[in-house]
């Protein structure tokens, strides 16, 4: 690709993301869930036909991917690079403000998904603790490796470090958290840690947003295993409580 073609490509992608409805669509897909055009239209507060036009443009620029299952058509982010670019833009957008004041809703700021790994206050505290204890070692500015104690600790959690190292993606890296403006743990190791926390019910995932909720077991285990003091998480409103209870009853036990 020539320099001129590269410049045009960047301009097209920037223009596509700059449209407010498209921004809402892309950010809503950052929890890793695929959604229909009707769902995305509601999220972006546009008509279904307008959402379809936006999605066609995003697909054309390889920002979203279409999944067809029978009569159903779902959209997801094209890949992790798109999610990382959106997170970076969120940070830059906040840096442009004269003073930084997080406007992230409490539930999202405490814990949420960042594509396939954990973000928010909980994730930043955990990232810092992994560095403090020497489990994570910095190998270069944007890359980590595990120490012997770190590898043993993750093995105790049931995470096969050797399998993660063999994947065709970065093993472990800092990912700048847009609500905290400090890094959390990304890469294959970050994704495996989130998957383990969800499997062990330390965290529960909201089905229709990026929010993660810390369970009583999770608060105990994060404190016991990583020695981090967690701030209190905002209690959900009564409607959220009923919704969460319905989901818990519908979910299989551990």
From TrEMBL:
PROSITE patterns: HTH_ARSR_2. Residues 2-97 form the HTH arsR-type domain. Signal peptide: none annotated. InterPro entries: ArsR-like_HTH, HTH_ArsR_DNA-bd_dom, HTH_Metal-responsive_Reg, WH-like_DNA-bd_sf, WH_DNA-bd_sf. It comes from the Bacteria. GO terms for biological process: response to cadmium ion; response to lead ion. Residues 235-254 are annotated as: Disordered. Pfam families: HTH_5. One of its GO terms (molecular function) is DNA binding. This is Helix-turn-helix transcriptional regulator. It comes from Pseudomonas kielensis.
